[in-house]
Every structure is written in structure tokens, then in C-alpha cells.
Design brief:
This protein has about 120 residues and is an alpha+beta fold. The protein contains two helices and seven strands. The protein has helices at about 1-30, 55-60, and strands spanning about 65-70, 80, 85, 90-95, 95-100, 105-110, 115-120. The N and C termini lie far apart (about 75 Å). Keywords: Signal.
């Protein structure tokens, strides 16, 4: 008789565990993926030209230079966040080379032109 009680007790515990696992699985299935296209390339634009050459989409998509932040270091190890990338003096992005980083602005050279970009403060 004790064996039957033990059997039913274990079976009951297993049933409760199985039910809990199935509920967790159903809850995980109900979460839906929401696609956000920001910062992603268009999947329908070809990566290779009809002649077989690779197409450089990065320059076309990110032709603008957006200064997002500055980490200024007076000793010369300053960095600027441009288009989401961390850059030092001498590094380039979208054909522009960072030539100077100041506390509130940067200077880049693009197409032999010196361009000053000031950091905008959010209000």
C-alpha cells in the first residue's frame, strides 16, 4: 500500500512539473518579434552589381556625418562618437578624416575641405 502512495505522490509531482513547463513554453511562444528597420540595410537592394562588382552601400546610406558625442581628454586621447562609431584623430568615416577633437566640436577633412561640426545639446 505504501508503494502505491509513493507512486501516486511521484506521479502527482511530475504532473505538476509538466504542467508548469508547458505553461512556460506557451508563454514564450506568445511573445512576438517586432522588426525595427532603423540602422539596417534594405534587404531588397542587391549587394552585387549586374557586372559582378560589390556595391558599397555604406557610403550612400551614411553620407552624412552626425556628431553624437565627444569624450575630451586634454592629454590627446580624445574620442568622438560619429554615426554611432567611436573615432580618434586620424581615423575616417564616410570619406571624412577626423583632424581635431575639441570639447564642444570636431574638425574633419572631406574632399580637401575642412569642416567644423559642433556638438548639439539636447534641450
Amino acid at each position: 500500500m505504501k508503494h502505491w502512495r509513493l507512486f501516486y505522490g511521484v506521479a502527482g509531482v511530475l504532473a505538476v512539473v509538466a504542467l508548469a513547463v508547458s505553461e512556460c513554453h506557451l508563454a514564450a511562444q506568445e511573445q512576438k518579434y517586432i522588426y525595427t528597420p532603423e540602422g539596417k540595410r534594405d534587404p531588397f537592394v542587391p549587394l552585387v552589381s549586374p557586372a559582378g562588382y560589390l556595391i558599397n552601400l555604406e557610403e550612400e546610406e551614411n553620407a552624412t556625418i552626425r556628431l553624437e558625442g565627444i569624450m575630451y581628454d586634454p592629454s590627446g586621447n580624445s574620442m568622438a562618437i560619429i554615426n554611432g562609431e567611436l573615432l580618434k584623430v586620424g581615423e575616417s568615416i564616410n570619406g571624412a578624416v577626423v583632424s581635431k577633437i575639441e570639447p564642444a566640436k570636431i574638425v574633419v577633412i572631406k574632399d580637401n575641405q575642412k569642416i567644423e561640426i559642433e556638438l548639439r545639446r539636447e534641450e
